[in-house]
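Running this now, will post back.
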Amino acid sequence: MSMKNINYSLLELATLCKNKSASDAIERATKGAEHIDNLGFTRLWLAEHHNMEHIASSATSVLIGHIAGKTKNIRVGSGGIMLPNHSPLVIAEQFGTLESIYPNRIDLGLGRAPGTDQVTAMALRRNNLNTAFYFKDDVLALQKYFSDENVSSKVRAFPGEGLDIPIWILGSSTDSAYLAAELGLPYAFAAHFAPAMLKSASEIYRMNFRPSEQLQEPYFMVCVNIVAAETDEEASYLSTSLQNLFAGIITNRRMPLSAPTEKPIYHGIPEIEQAVQSMTSSTFTGTAKTLSNKLQQLINEVQAQEIMTTNYIFDDEKRLKSFDIIKEAFDQINQE
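Update: finished.
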C-alpha cells in the first residue's frame, strides 16, 4: 500500500523514426510533451547523447527550453546533463536562464558518463578526459553558483545565482547512489538500459542518505521502459520496436526507431537475445491493469517515489494512446 502518491514522468530522447529527420523527431517529442502535460505527468526529461545519428537531443538545454515553451505545468529538465562534458559555470548560466524564463519548472539532472564514445568525449572536452574524476567537485561547484553565498566570489553565474533549481544525481551503478546520498540529493536510476544494480543502488542510497537543504528525506526515481496498449498482445507486439532498437545498440548497428515486427529481428540468435534481455529486463508491457500490478511490485521492491518511462512506440497515435494508458495505470496504483 502506498502512503504517498507515486509520481510518473517521461524520459524523452527525441529518437528519430525510420525515414524521418531531426525536425520530425523534435516535433514528435513536442507533441508528446503537450499530451502528457495535459495528462498530469510530473516531469519530462531530455537525455544528452552525442555522435548518435538517430537521437536529436544532443543540445539538451536548447531542447529543454523549446519544450518548456510549448507546455504549461509539467517540469522540464535534463536526464541528464553529462557534467564532465561541460564547465559547471556554463551549465549554471544555461539552467539559470531556463529557470528565469520558466520559473519553478526546471530540473537539473546530472550524470558522470560521457553520453558517447571516447573519441567524441575528447572532442567535447578538448582532450581533457580526466573530467569524470571531478564529478563530485563539479556538482558542488554548480551548487555554489546557484547559492546566495556566491555573492562575494570572483566568478558568478548570471542568471543562476540565488535561483532554486533542483539538482538530481543520475546513475546506472552504485557509485552514484553513494554520491546522491552523501550530498542529500534526489536520485534517478537508469534501469531502462542498466537494470543490474537497481536493487543495491536503491538500498545504498536510502541507508546512506544525509538530509540537505534541498531534501529532507530520500527521493528515489526509477527509469524503466513501458509499452502500454489496449491489450497485452498488442503491447507485446509494439515492444519489438524497442527490442530491435536495443539489438542495434548491442551489435553496434544503430538504427532509427522502426515499425514493430512479428518477432524481434534477432530471433533465434542466442547471444543477442540474451544481451537484449539483460539490458531491457526493466521493461513493462501491457494494459493499464497489467502495468499497475507489475509496476506496484517494482515500487514496493525498491521503495520508489517516482517512475519515469521511456516511450519507444513507433506509431504516433499509439504512442500518445500509450501515455493515456500509463496515466490510467498510475491512477490505479495511487487509488489503492
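The chain has a mean pLDDT of 94. More later if anyone needs it.
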